[in-house]
Write a structure and sequence with these properties.
With about 375 residues, this protein is of the alpha/beta class. It has 13 helices and twelve strands. Strands 1, 2, 3, 4, 5, 6, 7, 8, 9, 10, 11 and 12 form a twelve-stranded mixed beta sheet that branches.
């Protein structure tokens, strides 16, 4: 799990090149109405929860249409409203289903609707994010400075990909977020009903975001977390990336659960160290703009010490080991993808580190590059 960043919450720093929010946007609730992009477990989990305190619509691909309920729009013969029936099951500590709730979430088939989107929560797989965003990018409301909140794995890579792929990305607000809520999809319990979706909420977690309104909404529905500064969020996302760059590819390559990595042969320790040494170098360089944004030399020195401490190989290794222990019985998403013959997110994790190193800093991150090649060479 990603723990609250209390160890650097007392550090105050400026955000480099921050884009100010318009007064009209700041004075009203900009999160709702919200559209959610991504019809997986996290997308439906957040949709089912947030709809209790605001207007939420799922954006789904056309192949989902048979699973939706169809209701004619009031007084209209030309438009159709869809609703996604969702079962949300909660599990106990022993993974026993304890409660099941059902709800209908408003849904749209991508390409059928054209009304402006004010707030978008991205919950797709990392490798699906840019194609999915391309399909609705023209709908983002520039008048209200539409918000795009990236909740997907590989948020740093997705953020940078948006800036490269969309020439007018300055006209929308790109926001990063992260969550430790555990969820996965299952067959719907009613075997005679082929419509709908079932999500198992396998564990309560924490949700962090740089947008206060999004966190307010999460807290209104009883979820814990907090609003972070850009500095704090980047620190957290780089630590999360460190865990993902180690646990995901190595569990996929060795075909083991997260905790079993702790009991593999001694060679695994050297591999982990090599991955984290490269990531540490890139993370420290990427945090440099936050230091340079400060005019006070004492604050600069404090930030630099904090960044170097928390991105040291020893600190990152301890953090990754803790994540392995806390999630010891989990099957990583990358191993699940390999077993299901799906494209993995490795290019948005280890590949992101390798590309940044090569293209931006002329650093050869051969170990992270090697992880990409080994995962993609796996025989499914």
């Amino acid at each position: 799990m990603i723990r609250p960043p209390h160890h650097f919450m007392n550090l105050r720093c400026k955000t480099p090149k921050a884009k100010s929010m318009s007064t009209s946007c700041a004075q009203r609730d900009c999160i709702f109405p919200m559209h959610i992009l991504g019809g997986g477990s996290i997308g439906f989990l957040f949709g089912s929860k947030l709809k209790t305190c605001g207007d939420v619509t799922m954006l789904l691909r056309r192949h989902n249409k048979p699973r939706l309920k169809e209701t004619p729009s009031d007084g209209s013969f030309t438009a159709t409203k869809y609703f996604a029936p969702v079962q949300v099951r909660r599990t106990s500590d022993r993974e026993i289903i304890t409660t099941t709730t059902t709800c209908d979430i408003k849904a749209e088939i991508i390409g059928d609707a054209h009304d402006p989107i004010e707030s978008l929560l991205v919950c797709t797989k990392a490798n699906d994010a840019i194609p999915a965003l391309s399909s609705i990018w023209d709908r983002l409301d520039r008048k209200t400075t539409a918000k795009v909140i990236i909740l997907s794995n590989g948020a740093l890579a997705i953020r940078d990909s948006i800036q490269k792929h969309f020439n007018d990305h300055q006209n929308v607000q790109i926001i990063t977020a992260t969550t430790t809520h555990g969820a996965y999809t299952e067959q719907i319990s009613d075997t005679g009903n082929k419509s709908g979706y079932c999500v198992v909420h396998a564990g309560d977690g924490l949700t962090y975001c740089t947008n206060n309104k999004f966190i307010d909404a999460c807290q209104k529905v009883g979820w814990k977390g907090g609003a972070l500064s850009d500095f704090e969020m980047n620190m957290m996302l780089w630590k999360k990336l460190a865990a993902n760059c180690v646990i995901n590819p190595l569990t996929a390559i060795h075909g083991v659960k997260n905790g079993q990595l702790l009991r593999l042969d001694d060679n695994i320790d050297g591999t982990i160290t090599n991955i984290l040494e490269e990531l540490s170098s890139i993370a420290i360089l990427e945090m440099e703009p936050f230091i340079q944004a400060e005019e006070d030399l004492e604050v600069q020195a404090r930030l630099q010490r904090s960044i170097r401490e928390h991105f040291s190989v020893k600190f990152l290794k301890d953090f990754v080991t803790t994540v392995m222990t806390d999630t010891s019985d989990n099957i990583s998403s990358m191993l699940q993808d390999v077993n299901a013959n799906r494209t993995t997110e490795v290019r948005f994790l280890n590949g992101y580190v390798a590309n940044l190193g090569e293209e931006k800093y002329s650093i050869d991150c051969k170990n992270n590059k090697g992880m990409c090649n080994k995962v993609e060479d796996l025989k499914y």
